[in-house]
User: Fold these one by one.
Assistant:
Number 1:
Amino acid sequence: MMTTNNAEAPASTGEAVLAGKSLIQLEGLTKVFETEEVETHALSNIHLTIRQGEWVAIVGPSGSGKSTLLAVLGLLDTATRGAYLLDGLSVLDLSPSDRALVRNRHIGFIFQSFNLIGDLTVFENVELPLTYRGMPAAERKQRVERALEKVGMAHRARHMPGQLSGGQQQRVAVARAVAGDPLILLADEPTGNLDSKNGEAVMQLLSELHKGGATICMVTHDPAHARTATRTVSLFDGRIVQDEQRR
Amino acid sequence: MLSDLRMDLRYTLRTMRQTPVFTVAAVLVLSLGIGATTALFSVVDAVLLRPLPFPEPERVVVLGSERTQRAAPNYSLMTYEDLARQFTQVCSLTAFAGSRFNLTGDGDTRQLRGVTVAGDFFGAFGVKPALGRTFTPEEREASLVVLSHRQWQALGGGADVLGRTLTLGGQPYTVVGVMPPSFQVPHPTVDLWLPYDSQPGAATSEARTQRGFRSFTVVGRLAPGATLESARQELASLAPPLIQEDSSQQFGLLGYRDMLTRDVSLVLWVLLGAVALVLLLAAANVAHLQLARAASRQRELGIRVALGAGRGRLVRQLLTESLVLALLGGVGGVLLALWGTDLLLALGASALPRGGDVAVQGRVLLFALAVTLLTGVGVGLAPAVQRSQLSPGLVLGRGATEASRGRTHAALVVAEVALALVLVTGAGLMLKSFWRLQQVDPGVDPEGVFVAWLSLPQEGYREPERMAAFHRNLMARLAARPEVAAAGVGGSLPAGGSIRRSGYWVEGTADVPNRPTALVNVSTPGFLEALRVPLRAGRRLAEADRAEAPRVMVVSEHFAREVFPGQDPVGRRVTFGGDDAQGNPLWMTVVGVVGDVPYDGIEAGQEPTVYLPMDQEPAAGAQLAVRAAPGLSPLALEAVVREELRAVDSTVALAQPTTLEARLETDLGRPRFRTVLLGAFGVLALVLAAVGIYGVMSYAVAQRSHEMGVRMALGARRADVLKLVVGQALRRVGVGLGLGLTGALAAHRVMEGLLYGVGSLDVSVLSAVALLLLGTAWLASWLPARRAASVDPASVLRRG
Ligand SMILES: Nc1ncnc2c1ncn2[C@@H]1O[C@H](COP(=O)(O)OP(=O)(O)O)[C@@H](O)[C@H]1O
Ligand SMILES: [Mg+2]
């Protein structure tokens, strides 16, 4: 069931947002890592457009460039060549502090190992990206509470991450990612460190977010999880070898 | 048990080899701390702790004020005789005074530092001569001399010295004995001792005839059965009639050693305290290094616990490590102390009483060992206890101990900052005090002035007229030289070490039994010009103020202010005792007022001073001050002075030729010694604190680099990360400063007696030091913070 990249994504819920404009546009994007002797072409000539409301699963064997792609999408890393438009704005040659700003405002990260900060409470973890925005405390509180409610962790706001199970930690991480209303959620194997039951729960959570209108780009090893997404992009050796869209 | 120890040791040595950088750094830091402490203790030991080299040294007592004062006050021989007759609780009472003797006979005239004694001098100290015998109280008029070991060496050091005749002040003296090298009464550079009354004209000298001639130190030995307390009581009952004679005298009794060391004991204890704080800082740094290293060994320790190692076993293992480190540091420290002691002596410790006895040996080595063991246990205990609390589960699981280790690190930073604040405040106060001392107006213009001691031999200068004539003659010849701008002779020079004070009575006021005293500086007319002491009113001393002319004096502003407040002193009359030919008080008319000069040293400050004409009050010993003609070096004047001296009288010795500037410098020697040392400790403290903060923050940043990546992935900017790290460091520093403030204030209190011109709460020094520490902390945490901010945020994905 191959479709072209630029085919209109049909809205599964029939909502207008899903007919969305293109949020991310990569053109001829290439990433070369230069280490002492070898040059690694982690990404080669990637063309990829992600539209508002899409849920993209990125799959591929280990070392195929999935994480690198996510890092470039999330402005954690820069590309060697090519163009990257985020919401119509070219973001490849922003200064480090502008990139931090874009990350903070428009990107929500979910990591495989949760990456909650151990010294901060659940509440403070979720609040962290908002503080970097200089948001007033009252508004932060409101947003954090809303995000925690969304993931069903509001009752654990005062806990420390160490006191939570892996699944709970990942839900807090999701709350942290969505608290700032990002344009897109980037998830690198969000279920990789979880057992299947907790993994399912997180996938369920992402599903709900997607239904609520969130745009998600997720790296996964699990074919079943990839099928939950609306689109699957397969990488091999730094190239897109397949791009599959589902109804 | 023993095999356990062997295993612990073997294991310790292996870990030390595996982490050579840590080992070397820790040993170096500990060596520095232990070495500095040991070196300073060797000085404290020699000066304050080791018993004086007399039999039953604690029974040797000295007359003086029991209140703190710079030196023991002096007494007249007449007062001494009165006391000696009545005092039963103290036996072998003796009075002695320093004097200079010209040694003539073979080659150039040399000036020797002698002590003239009355009473049972050698009995009071109880020291046997190394060679020959001492003279007895009965031989008071015999021309006998006992040499110091030093002088004996200078004279060849042969046994044939006994019986030899030395010509001292033109008088033949027979050498009867040589004292051992440890006998250095009253100071290490003494050359000889001789009976006061053996000197020609002694019986009619001022010392024998005037109660006001107070230049003798009075020492005795507590009689059998007497205590310091009982002797004090008896003295209190004997004193009133003596005070009647001269009320400015103080009759108290104190241990000879206390008198000897009371100027220096405070500074030495303060310095030892300071260096102990430096050692604490060093130990805190090593403790931190050990703690940080433990992080990498956490799993290993956890496995040991899991395998059933008891808590005591684990603590022992960890203590073995820190003790081995400390012992290595102790060895390095003792080596460093050997060198550091020499440095201390060169810096001025050799000028301390008994400074010559400073050595790293015996008790000092024991001290070093004790300090080493204490440091080893101290450094090891905190990390050991903390680490032995690890439960295997915690260790094999992840990280919850991180927080508690973080707390220990934070506590170390707080402690280091607090210690550093105390030390650096101490150093800052010393620096400020020293700076103040240097700012003090010496009252004279020292640039271009040549100074030296002149002393007239008794032979040929028995009559005052001849002394006066000699000085007049020499001054006239010097003034005629083109190299000389002005020349004069005076009893006292700034920082010159010779001070004479006398009680005075102002005409028209009631004569009180205890007359106030003023510093009396007998000088020639050129003296004040040579020093450029400014004239404030009237005139200076002049050629016309000869012996037969009306008696006059010039007074200092301080004297004028104190004695004639709000009045014109010129024309008023004052007496210092004595009668004129008609039997009336010997009045002297004030003819001028000049600026103040702190003759007794800048720290002591200026005091009421009067200048009497040499012609009217001739003296045999005085100091020469010659101002060089413009453009000429004052040192070049030595040849000129010697030439003229030879022309006037070649038997007169010129001693200690130098410049006035150099003399004023030596006046600052003691304050400089303590300032340099405390300053060095302050710098050391600052460096150690900076290294500590840097280490702790580097470690924390390394531990948290992943977290920093996460924060950056979430949108933290560089500035946010910098702020986070620096902010955390500064918060700890702030707590440390708060805690250290109490200590710093206490240190200020303790040091007050060492400070000049610094109030009891010096906000400027405190705030400057706090700012300095904050700045240092900022810098020390800025570098690790930059490292934290340069974490590649993409690494967060890779590690996950
Ligand atoms: N920082 C880096 N330096 C050098 N090579 C890197 C770096 N990050 C990734 N690579 C290389 O780029 C390629 C793609 O890596 P990655 O994106 O992590 O793959 P995936 O996530 O699909 O397993 C790999 O060959 C990897 O070794
Ligand atoms: Mg990956």
Number 2:
Amino acid sequence: MISVGLLLLVWELCATYSGIKPTILPAPSRVFEQAMLNREALVDNAIPTIRATLLGFACSLSAAFALSMLVDFFLPLRRALFPVFIVSQTLPLVAIAPLVVLWFGFGLAPKIMLVALVTFFPMLVALVEGYEATEAEIGQMLRAMGAGRWRIFVLARLPSALPYFFAGLRISITYAVVGAIFAEYAGAAKGLGIYMLNAKNNFRPDLVLAAVGVSAALTLVLFGLTVLLQRLAMPWERAGKESAGKGPWR
Amino acid sequence: MSRLELRHVRKAFGGLDVLADISLSVGASEFVSILGPSGAGKSTLFQLLTGAEHGEGEMLFDGAPLDDHGRHFAFMPQCDALMPWRRILNNATLGLEVQGIRRKAARARVAPLFAEFGLAGFERHFPAQLSGGMRQRAALLRTVVQERDMLLLDEPFGALDALTRTAMQRWLEQMWRHHRWTALLITHDVREAVFLSDRIYVLSARPARIVREIKVPLPRPRSLGGDAARQASALEAEILDIILNPNPPKGHDHD
Ligand SMILES: Nc1ncnc2c1ncn2[C@@H]1O[C@H](COP(=O)(O)OP(=O)(O)OP(=O)(O)O)[C@@H](O)[C@H]1O
Ligand SMILES: [Mg+2]
């Protein structure tokens, strides 16, 4: 928080005293002022971006979850599918975004697809590695108790994967907004991406930066939500930390 | 009348011979220990018994081959294997839940045991909030409530400090006198084996074979003083000698 404030201060001073024109480098104060003046347009354009982000994220989350389970139960599938997913991660977004828009039009579909594309893999990897992190002894014990594979998955592998899942979720969520903006940049009726593009073309770097600020705030909020969700879903983690360092007895 | 009987059991992992030739038996309500150096293959033996791995040789329970794995044993792994995400109460009922008993009924069955296991008041705690000794007792509780024919305990106190371990051994000996479980305990603590067992099998280093079977004729309750304690010390010294000198001069056998 302090570091962000300091950065803004330095920027403000540079913009004010270096003599760079505000049409090149606007001061934060001017960006904020313009953001306030244009807040209706900004909100109007943020809504489709939020919608694309959340829908795309929901899609990729369900897909990652379903596939991670499939891969966990049928190991050969993992070897067959992972190379495909890895290649999907090497596709440069700049190149793929216009293509997806070209194929699927200016609607919501290509945005959802791009968001899903960039967020899917980190979550899949997190889940699969999370399942693998299950203590071998817990599995052996459950088997000795008479549990089958499904039972072991639900009782042990799934909960063991939770910390990994949330780590993946936090990484993915920071990509999600960027993915949506890229998709809009490549073509959309409305959205932060197309707003930035128009502002740039009208030589309004202040408005470009205002939109950047909105997208950053969006990402921060989503990130905060995942942290909150993790706290709610894993109460034992905090409980463990609070009482670390106990005596050996009782 | 022996309940569990192993005849010439062998196991190799790839080219690595782990169990060379294991024959042993455990009678009804008998407490038997397997004592052996680290890496000998003790945990591997439990893997065979619980069906996690398959080996050669015969494994019989009440005279029938052990192919329907796991229905006879309540198994306590070397680490406590408590699930960090479950509260102690729900960890304790895990085995019953897997058996298909409803959560409420399982809780009712487990609840009265918390006091006996020194865990009263900690039902709603998470494992991370417990001390090492309490975690082991919780793991033991989860094991015994399954009410299987036999307990398999893999170094239940191996990870504890010496003071806690001694306290736990005394506690377990007392518990065993009440419940008379048929039990097979793995340990590399000579004193623990002598203190708790009716009989001890001493294993060689890997590949493991049984070098000696020792009866422990000490009276119960086991005490830490008096004549019995002197006898126990003598027995401990003898066992240590067997383990540390793999080829001892023949002389004083116990049976
Ligand atoms: N799944 C496995 N695959 C390959 N080797 C294994 C496997 N499990 C055990 N081993 C090997 O078998 C040997 C015996 O292992 P085991 O865990 O049975 O020893 P242990 O007697 O229980 O030792 P400790 O007292 O340290 O627990 C070790 O050398 C180990 O590397
Ligand atoms: Mg072991």
